[in-house]
TrEMBL record:
Pfam families: LytR_cpsA_psr (PF03816). This is Transcriptional regulator yvhJ. It comes from Urinicoccus massiliensis. Residues 68-219 form the Cell envelope-related transcriptional attenuator domain. Belongs to the LytR/CpsA/Psr (LCP) family.
Length: 297
């Protein structure tokens, strides 16, 4: 395969991968730049890093009315170090949400005001100035995994859950151990909530493990030729405010990233029951230290 074709396909794979782990997004919903503005931005604005909020939503979950964010991660791309940092925000994190009288769980922000309010709430909670968001739906994850031929995941424990409600049916049965998940099972693995010993934090670790497994599979050369199919799959299931110029400038990271280039962490804090509801209470001092260490503050 010629060098140009190989480089082109690899770039497509990089762009597709971004829609899951928050590296980049190119699709029908991206905020496009005029070609002349794009060239000018690429030549005048040399980015060494890029920060944004990755939001995952399960549009098929109708159990709570309007969908709430199921995954929230701060993503930091470092072009100099050729690294990607993912910092998970527990969905039960207690915080103030604009327009609400009392503090609530941070994942409620999406139901009240979509990705814009989610991003604003995260910035207010952490004292950050993250400029962009990337929003994906679990349907995209399902389609991607099926197109790839499955993703190998280490199931940490026996997982059993059954909900036969009409319109919101979800049946999960997994045995522990290493196994290859198809798209439907991958989404079930990500949706599973009950049974983790450390509650929401255990689920966050499972999400991080899946992203790592997805990365390893997608970087395999046999996946490169599927890039055009990947692009078509996610156009209806993603949205992003990240400028195309920023995506292009950051695109070499995945191709050059080593095995230790992907770093995962979770905002520090502890669970607490308040008014019979389970919350995650952020440790603000430790959170600032973590964000500073990752280059986000």
């Amino acid at each position: 395969m010629g060098k140009f074709i190989k480089a082109f396909l690899l770039t497509l794979v990089v762009l597709v991968l971004a829609s899951l782990v928050g590296v980049f997004y190119v699709g029908a919903s991206v905020h496009h730049q005029d070609p002349l503005d794009l060239v000018a931005d690429l030549t005048s604005n040399k980015r060494d890093s890029l920060d944004f909020l990755l939001i995952g939503v399960d549009s098929k979950d109708k159990s709570q009315g309007k969908p709430r964010s199921d995954v929230m991660m701060l993503v930091h791309l470092n072009k100099t170090n050729k690294s990607i940092s993912l910092i998970s925000i527990p969905r039960d994190t207690r915080t103030k949400i604009e327009g609400r009288k009392h503090k609530e769980k941070i994942n409620h922000a999406f139901a009240y005001g979509g990705p814009d309010l989610s991003l604003k709430t995260v910035n207010q909670l952490l004292g950050t100035q993250i400029p962009y968001y990337m929003l994906i739906d679990y349907e995209f994850v399902k389609d991607m995994v099926d197109t790839m031929g499955g993703v190998q995941v280490d199931i940490p424990m026996e997982m059993n859950y059954e909900d036969t409600t009409v319109g919101n049916s979800l049946i999960i049965h997994f045995k522990p151990g290493l196994q290859t998940l198809n798209g439907e099972d991958a989404v079930k693995f990500l949706r599973f909530r009950k049974g983790y010993k450390n509650a929401d934090l255990g689920r966050v670790q499972a999400q991080q493990q899946f992203i790592g497994a997805f990365l390893r599979e997608l970087k395999k050369p046999e996946q490169w030729v599927k890039a055009p199919v990947f692009l078509a799959k996610y156009q209806d299931n993603a949205d992003s405010t990240i400028p195309l110029s920023a995506l292009i400038q950051m695109s070499p990271i995945l191709a050059q990233m080593g095995e230790d280039g992907l770093q995962s962490a979770t905002l520090p804090g502890s669970p607490k029951m308040i008014d019979h509801l389970s919350y995650f209470i952020l440790d603000e001092d430790q959170a600032r230290n973590l964000l500073a260490a990752q280059g986000i503050l």
